[in-house]
Amino acid sequence: MFTFAQRMCVFAAATVGLFAQSTPVAPAQETRTSGIIGITDGQIARLNALNVGVAASAVGVVCPAALNFWDGSGKLLKSLTVAVPAGKSMYLDLFGDADLALAVLDRREIRGTITIPPVPPPSTSAAATPCNLIGTLELIDASTSKTQVVIGVGHAVPGPAVTAATP
Asked: Which domains does the chain possess?
């Protein structure tokens, strides 16, 4: 009987130890932004997201993301949710005339953001495969299709802290 009680104590201690370990938490949303750039009538801003897929765990992984354009006052101008396959890129265009209704000699300050994943994961889900998208923001002359400026989308935007729920 004593041996049975001893074994039960060892089993109970092991079980408590398993539950006391931290539960894996899905990575929090990550948002990266470009700096501010001006757009005028006759220009197109293109926000690019490239899934390099070079890490062994990321080969073949499709990365979901939200591509967004914001103006200088923080107003959302245009948004698109994409699923970027490994080795491919996707983009969102913002037209100075059609999307922003800019008149001749008008100018608007904008920036682009890429958010991975596009919606925050529940804190109780298992850790997801990490995605690494490389972002650029191009300013293109609409009449010639020539790129005039390219800037990186690599500045991290702080988000809310995500913590695991305690049992």
From this structure: 26-157 (2.60.290)
